Amino acid sequence: MADRKEEIIQAGIEVFAARGYYNTHIAQIVEKVGIAKGTFYLYFNSKKDLFISLIKRHEKIFLEVFDNYTFDTNNKNLKIFLEEMLLGFFKIYKKHKNLSIIILREAVAVNEEFGDEFKRMEEKRFRRLQDLYKFLIENNYISKDIEFDYFAFAFLGIMESVIMRKLILSEEDFNIEEAADKISDYLNKAIS
Amino acid sequence: MADRKEEIIQAGIEVFAARGYYNTHIAQIVEKVGIAKGTFYLYFNSKKDLFISLIKRHEKIFLEVFDNYTFDTNNKNLKIFLEEMLLGFFKIYKKHKNLSIIILREAVAVNEEFGDEFKRMEEKRFRRLQDLYKFLIENNYISKDIEFDYFAFAFLGIMESVIMRKLILSEEDFNIEEAADKISDYLNKAIS
Amino acid sequence: MADRKEEIIQAGIEVFAARGYYNTHIAQIVEKVGIAKGTFYLYFNSKKDLFISLIKRHEKIFLEVFDNYTFDTNNKNLKIFLEEMLLGFFKIYKKHKNLSIIILREAVAVNEEFGDEFKRMEEKRFRRLQDLYKFLIENNYISKDIEFDYFAFAFLGIMESVIMRKLILSEEDFNIEEAADKISDYLNKAIS
Amino acid sequence: MADRKEEIIQAGIEVFAARGYYNTHIAQIVEKVGIAKGTFYLYFNSKKDLFISLIKRHEKIFLEVFDNYTFDTNNKNLKIFLEEMLLGFFKIYKKHKNLSIIILREAVAVNEEFGDEFKRMEEKRFRRLQDLYKFLIENNYISKDIEFDYFAFAFLGIMESVIMRKLILSEEDFNIEEAADKISDYLNKAIS
DNA sequence: TATGAATGAGACTTCATTCAT
DNA sequence: TATGAATGAAGTCTCATTCAT
C-alpha cells in the first residue's frame, strides 16, 4: 500500500522536525502512525533510508520552484524578478514547513552520515542558481562585477536566514509577501 | 588543575567539530587528552555539560567583537563601517574555526537538548545588533525605512552563509579581507 | 495440490543446501517457488516442519539402498560386496546432492532442534548396518574379532568423509566408481 | 583483566557446545559468567568475534598434537605409529570436549559465516597430514599405491566418526586407549 | 486455496555514566 | 585527583508466523 508508506513519511517528517534526527526513534514514528515496529521495515530499510527519502523529497520540491519559474524579461525589472522567485521559495518553505525545518537543520549537522546526499543536493541547487546568474548577466540585470559566489551567498544566505528565523524559530505568522518585497528590494539595490 | 579542564575543552572542540555532537563519544575525547574516562567526570558533569561550556565560550568570544568595536563616526562611511565589523567577525571565526563549526552546526540542530542555551545566545547577539542598528539610524548611516529585523537577517544571513560555505565546507583558503570588502559593499548599497 | 507441496520441498532443498538452516528464510523459499508467504503455511506448519520433511525424505532414500541390496553370496568376495554397496550409496548421494548436503551438515549442527529426528534416523541406519554386519559374520566374510561399533564407525566414517570432501566441498567432478573401488579395497583389507 | 576474557571464553565454549551457534545468545553467556551484557563487548567485538576466537583456539590445540609428535622410526611399526598419534588426538578431543563439539559441529554447518576461518584451518590440517604421509611413504611404512586423498579421508573420517559418536553423542565413558588400539589396527591393515 | 501486509518478541549492540580502588 | 572495568537502559533491526480478504 503506497498510502502506508506515505503515512510513515508524514509521521517521520513530523517527528524529525520536532526532535531532530538523533533524538527521533523508530518507536516514536511507528507509534504516531499506529503500526508495529516491524511494519516500518517493510517500507524502509532503515531509519537512515527514511531520512534520505525526505532529503530527496525536499530536493525535488525545491528544484521545482526553479523549474516552474519562467525566465523571461517581459516588463520585469530585477526587483520584480527577484521578488517573484523569493515568493516562490517562501511559499514552498511555508507549505512544507516541517520538511524544511528538517533539511535546513540537518543539512549542516549530520553531514557525517548524509554528507553525500546533501552535497548532491547543494550541487544541484548551485547549478540552478548558476543558470539564473547567467540569465541575469546576459540580460543586463546585474553588473558583471558581481561574482557568482557572492551572488549565491547573498541570495541563499538572506533567504535561509529569513526562513530559519521567521518561519522556523518564530511562533508568529510569517508574512511572506512582505518579506519577499523587502528582501528583493535590498538584493536589487545591492547587486544591480 | 585548570589546565586539565582546558585540555578537555580543547579536545572536545576538535572532536565535536570533526564528528558532530551525537557522533562524538566521551571515549574519543578522553583518548585525545590521554586521560581515563572517570577523569572526564571530575571536570564535567556530563557530555552535555562540556558542550554547554563550548557554547558559552563561543558566546563570549563572539560578543567581544562588538565590545572591541568603537562606534564612532570619524571619517567613516557606512561601507567602511560594515567592512571593519565584518572583518572582525571573520577574524574571530577563522581563529576559532573548530568552535565556530560546532556552534553554527549544532545551534540549529540540537535544539531539543540545548534550545535554552542557544536561545539565550541569540538574544544577546540581537541585543548587540540592535545597539548597532540604533547607532546607524541615529547617525543617518541607514534610512529609517530599514526595519531592524531585515537588517539583522541580511547581516547575519550573508555573514553566516559566507562563513559556512567558505570557511567550513570549503577546503581552500578563505580570503577574509576580500570577503569583507565585497559583502560590505553589497550591504552598503542595499541599506544606505 | 500435491505438486505445490513438492515444489516447496524442492525449493527448500535448494535454499537449505545453499545457505544452511538458520540462514535460510521462508521469504527465500517462497520467492523461489513464486508463491506468497501465507501459502507456505497451507502446506507446512512451520519452517521446522518443512525441515523435518527433508530429514524423513533423506532417511527413506538412504534406507532404500539397503533394501535394494540383495544380501547374497554368489560369486562375491568381501571386496566386491562392499564395493557394490558403497557405489549404491555414492550414487544416491550424488543424485540427491543438495539433500545430502543438508543432512550431513545439519545432522550434527542443529541437534538442539532436531535431535529426536536425527537420533531416530541414526538408529534405523545402525539397525540396517547391524543386519549387514551379522550377515558378514555369518558368512565368514569378516572375523569375529571385529566389533560392530568399530565396523560401523569405519564404514560410515570413511564414507561420509569422502562424501563431504569429494562431493560437497569440492568443485571437481567426483568419480564414484574409483572411490568405491579404493575404499572397498581398504575396508576389505582392514576387516577381513 | 585477562581472566575476565578467559571466563567469557569458557562460558562461550559451554553454551555454544550445548546449544549451537545460532541458538546461543549473548544473554546466556553473560549470565553464565555473571556479568552485564555491556561487559561482553569490552572483550569481544561481537558474538562472531568470540566464535572466531574459539576456532583459533581449537586450531592451535589441534595442530600441537602434530607438533608434539616426533616422527622417528625407532622400534616403531606402522600400527604403533598410528596408535600413538590417534591416542594423541583422542586425548586432546577428550580434554577439550566442548570445544571439540563446537568445531566438529559448526565447521560444516555455518560455513556461510565462518567459511574463511574453517577453510584456513582445514588447509593447515591437510598440510600437516601431508607431512605425515610423506614421512610414511619415505620410510616404507605404506605403499606408494595409497593416494594421499584417500589416506587423509580414511584417517580423518574414521577418527572424526569415532569422536563424534563415542565422545560427543554418547553418554558413556569413552575408552580412548581401546579405540586407538583398534582403529590403528584397521588402518594398519588397510594401508600397509 | 491463495495472498501479503502486518505483527511483535527478541536478538545484537552502543555508550554515557558510575564507583571501588 | 585519577583510574578503567563494569553497568544496563535503550536503540535498531529481523523474521517466523498470522489473519483478514
Automatic annotation (TrEMBL), chains A, B, C, D:
Protein known as: Transcriptional regulator, TetR family
InterPro entries: Homeodomain-like_sf, HTH-type_Tx_Regulator, HTH_TetR, Tet_transcr_reg_TetR-rel_C_sf
Residue ranges annotated for the HTH tetR-type domain, each copy included: 2-62
Record-level Gene Ontology MF annotations: DNA binding
Record feature DNA-binding region, as residue ranges: 25-44
Keywords, ordered alphabetically: DNA-binding
PANTHER family hit by this protein: ACREF/ENVCD OPERON REPRESSOR-RELATED (PTHR43479), ACREF_ENVCD OPERON REPRESSOR-RELATED (PTHR43479:SF11)
Annotated Pfam families: TetR_N
Superkingdom per UniProt: Bacteria
Organism: Halanaerobium kushneri
